Amino acid sequence: MRATIRILGIDPGLRRTGWGVIDVDGNRLGFVACGAVASDDRAPLGERLVAIHAGLTRVVETYEPAEAAVEATFVNKDAAATLKLGQARGVALLVPALAGLAVAEYAPSLIKKTVVGTGQGDKAQIRMMVQVLLPKAAPDTHDAADALAIAVCHAHHRTSAVLRATLAKVAGA
C-alpha cells in the first residue's frame, strides 16, 4: 500500500521566495498550491528575513508537507548579492527543518535537467514544463514555477536523498 507524500519546494530569494506544494503517489504527481513570499526591498535585511520566515512558516503550517527541497545557491559575480541570497536560503532551509522535515538540496542544473531535459533550460521552459507535468498548476510568477520544479525534482530523486539523510544520521549517531 502506497502513501501519498506531500513535498514543499522552495526557490530562495531575498525579493521573492517561491514555494510550491505537490503530492506524490508512486510516479503520479499532483498540484496542491504555489506562490511567493515577498519582502520589501527598502526594508532592513533583518526585517526582510523575518518576512520570509513568517511567510514560509504559514505555508508549512497550512499545507503540512512531509518533505522539503531547496535549490542550492549558485555563486554569481556579485559577492554581496550572493551573500544576501545565502541568508534568504538559510531561512528557506531553517523553516522546514524547524518543523521537523527532512530538507534536500538540489543544484539548479539538476532541477532543470529533471524538469526540462537539459541543464540549460530557461525560466520560460521551466514554467511550461511545470504546467505540462502538473496540468492544474498556474503559477503566477517564475519564482512559484521554479519552486514547483524543485518539488518535482525532489519527487524524482527523493529515494536517494532520503537514503543519504538516513545514512548521515546513522553515521553521526
From TrEMBL:
InterPro entries to which the protein is assigned, alphabetical: RNaseH-like_sf (IPR012337), RNaseH_sf (IPR036397), X-over_junc_endoDNase_Mg_BS (IPR020563), X-over_junc_endoDNase_RuvC (IPR002176)
Cofactor(s) the protein needs: Mg(2+)
The family this protein is said to belong to: Belongs to the RuvC family.
EC numbers, comma separated: 3.1.21.10
Keyword DNA-binding appears in the UniProt entry: yes
Pfam families the record matches: RuvC
Residues annotated to bind Mg(2+) 1: D11, D143
Protein purpose: The RuvA-RuvB-RuvC complex processes Holliday junction (HJ) DNA during genetic recombination and DNA repair. Endonuclease that resolves HJ intermediates. Cleaves cruciform DNA by making single-stranded nicks across the HJ at symmetrical positions within the homologous arms, yielding a 5'-phosphate and a 3'-hydroxyl group; requires a central core of homology in the junction. The consensus cleavage sequence is 5'-(A/T)TT(C/G)-3'. Cleavage occurs on the 3'-side of the TT dinucleotide at the point of strand exchange.
One Gene Ontology molecular-function label: crossover junction DNA endonuclease activity
Enzyme active site: D11, E71, D143
The protein's name: Crossover junction endodeoxyribonuclease RuvC
One GO term (biological process): DNA repair
Cofactor binding: number and manner: Binds 2 Mg(2+) ion per subunit.
